[in-house]
Amino acid sequence: MSKPEEEKKAPKFKKESAKRALKIFKYVRPYLWHFTIGMAFLVLSSLLFVGLMGLPGEMANIALGKPKFNIGISVWDFGWIFLVILILQGIFSYLRTYLFAVVSEKGMADLRKELYQKIITQPITFFEERRVGELTSRITTDVEQLQSVFSVTLGEFIRQIVVLFAGIIIIIIWTPKLSMIMLMTFPAIVISAMIFGRYIKRLSKQRQDELAHTNTIVEETFQSFAIVKAFANEWYEAIRYGKSIDKIVAVSLSFAKMRGIFFTFIITILFGGIFFILWQGALMLERHEMEAGDLFSFIMYTGILGGAIASLGTLSTQILTAIGATERILEILDNPSELPIQKENFSKDSLILEGNITYENVSFSYPTRKDLQILDAINLKIQAGQKVALVGQSGAGKSTITQLLMKFYNPDSGMITIDGHDINSYDLSQYRHNLAIVPQEVILFGGTIRENISYGKPDATDEEIIEAAHLSNSWEFISVFPEGLDTIVGDRGIKLSGGQRQRIAIARALLKNPRILILDEATSSLDAESERLVQEALDKLMLNRTSIIIAHRLATIKDVDWIYVLENGKICEAGKHHDLIEKENGVYASLAKLQFETA
Question: What is residue 375's three-state secondary structure?
Fold first, then answer.
């Protein structure tokens, strides 16, 4: 089920879900004292509020000389009583608001940190099965819903329960006859209003969903405006947007009809019920069965009780929605991590590989496409310090070989060893510290050049960063920028050219100083001058390192130590460039002939 469809469903209470949702309270536990004291202030504040609502009626009774409770106070004394209660109410409200804020802000900050750490330590397959937008929603929208519950909704829910029960007890004691009439009629009216309100809310949400869908169409077309123009599809997008707007109109008209019916219900039934109760109260007042002040107090309490019942409906919906958010968060938190979060200490005891790589009968299919075999009984050997190229048509399995080496996936069968040991026997974090990749499409972080280069070694000094920039041929353009290393590269490195991004990636890899280097089409999308500069930097980077080069352009790999040619997930040829090119009707020779003749 897609997310919008999932959210359209009204939240339902499930005992198991509620039980499971209680696990989220572990993030509140460190701040239990704040929560408990805040709850105490909340209850005191609510009881003061309920008590305050009865004082005006008793004050009226005393003014008329017919007090209900003979406690020996005058109308003048009520001024001080009101003042003291309002001051206490203000103090209690401030303290409970602040204490709940401590619980929600700090507790949800802890949750956000753990959730982010859990997501960032998941294997590649986790991200392949989920959209980035979905994961972002978990860490933002879902956590915000929980934060709202802990800071406002939960406290307000308990407050309304206290007000409801305390109010009912007071009016039963204060005006027993009239309260019986109210308790027989008013709840049915309020519950009917809540049912109406819930249906209207569902229509309102449906309208918002349709509006969100319309906005998505606008964003997509504006972001891909060049494509729309290139295909002359303005008419198609206009029709698509128009249909979406028509849906909004249809939902909005249904929404307006239900609101009209709801307003009619409120005016005729709800207010009719209130006026009926007040009419009965007036008759009792006329028969001297109750005092005017008591009727006034009863009206006040009826209002706050009606408000409490209506609020409980809305608040319970918010809490049920938060339980749904908790379920989605816990689903991620319960996933096992690929590796633990820790500040890595690569000291003399850390893993340092030599770089002798062996693939023994390795077969593999991607978890999401088990019916399609990508690698079929692959056997290959790479000696430490060698430069080895992987060649073949797209889909032959070249990138998959390197992804298995980086332990993004595990082989279905067979084994990969480095320095004679199964790669699964190494600590994953220390193992990956020995590898670096320079991809075809370099994605930089949106910060500074310094931050992007030092990503290879976060504690690197400026001297080390500048040295890496020099070796990667990056310093020649970095030094021209007014801000130098502090130049902002923009989202995904958009402010830099392709060649500049590649050289930053090489500087990053140089700073990491890996034992095994993977170059994935690192120069294929560059112009001649950029390619020359990048190739010079790559030659420095590959020096004394085991290097695996994925290449389509065979001219870039003529001087490597060994070439493996892949076809349909199998190694069909292996050897040096000059040997492979002489094989008549060979796959490599055919590729070379095609490329060099075209060139």
Answer: strand
Instruction: Show the DSSP H helices in 416-497 as ranges.
Output: 428-433, 449-453, 462-471, 475-478
Evaluate whether 234 touches 228 at the Cβ level (below 8 Å).
yes
Q: Which residues pair with residue 416 across a beta bridge?
A: 359
Query: At residue 315, what is the residue type?
Result: L
Q: How far apart are CA 250 and CA 268, in angstroms?
A: 27
- Which residue type does 428 have? L
The answer to whether 415 and 422 have CB atoms below 8 angstroms apart is yes
Sketch the domain layout of the chain as residue ranges. Answer: 9-174+320-339, 176-289, 357-598
Closest among 362, 352, 337, 338 to 415, alpha carbons compared: 362
Q: List, for residues 129-174, the tens digit of each pLDDT value.
A: 777 777 887 888 888 888 888 888 888 888 888 888 888 887 787 7
Confidence of residue 198 (pLDDT cuts 50, 70, 90): low
Give Rg (Cα) of the chain: 36
Total H helices, total E strands in the chain: 22, 10
- Spatial CA neighbour of 415 closest among 518, 122, 367, 407: 407
End-to-end CA distance of the chain: 50
Q: Which CATH fold would you assign to the domain 357-598?
A: Rossmann fold (3.40.50)
Contact predicate 504/472, CB 8 Å: yes
User: Sign of the C-alpha dihedral, residues 455, 119, 428, 383?
Assistant: negative
Amino acid at 328: R
**What's the pLDDT at 342?**
59
The residue whose two tokens read 């709840």 is 187
- Res. 599 pLDDT band, cuts 50 70 90: very low
The beta-strand segments (E) located in 406-543 are 413-418, 421-422, 435-438, 516-520
Distance CA 294, CA 388 (A): 94
At 416 the pLDDT is 93
Ranked by mean pLDDT, the top range of 64-78, 175-189, 212-226, 332-346 is 212-226
Q: What is the pTM of this model?
A: 0.71
Rounded Cα distance between 441 and 490, Å, is 16
User: Which residue type occupies 153?
Assistant: T
User: Alpha helices, DSSP H only, in 224-361?
Assistant: 225-230, 234-265, 271-286, 292-333
- Sign of torsion, CA 204 207 213 219? negative
Over 466-511, what HEC string results? HHHHHHCCCHHHHCCCCCHHHCECCHHHCCCCHHHHHHHHHHHHHH
Nearest residue to 82 via CA among 111, 109, 40, 53: 53
Q: Determine the average pLDDT of the residues in 366-380.
A: 86
Going 350 to 356 to 358 to 364, the CA torsion angle's sign is: positive
9-174+320-339: CATH, from 1.20.1290.10, 1.20.1560.10, 3.40.120.10, 1.10.3880.10 = 1.20.1560.10
pLDDT at residue 88 tops 70:
yes
Strand order in the sheet with 375-382: 375-382, 357-364, 413-418, 421-422
Beta bridge partners of 575: 563
- pLDDT per position as a tens digit, 12-51: 545 666 667 677 888 888 888 988 998 899 888 888 888 7
